[in-house]
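Continuing the series of single-chain predictions for the mutant panel. This is the parent chain; the variants come on the following pages.
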Amino acid sequence: MARVLLFGRLSDVAGWRDRQIDSPFLSALKSRLADEDAGLGAALAGAGVQVALDQVIVRGDAALNAGTEVAFLPPMSGG
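Parent structure:
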């Protein structure tokens, strides 16, 4: 199972911050989350949302192994 972490407004939308979810690929995990919660699915698909697997930013799809940490990061702002 992958450990899924949501940060910032993403955790506010979902109502949770940390869950264990079984999924073979990142794309399947995103689809599952969107199917379970349309609001979260829309937020994850939003501009600027990044994904880190085991603390490394990834783009596109990736295989998930048991124990993979998947972190969804909201857009960053600052000054």
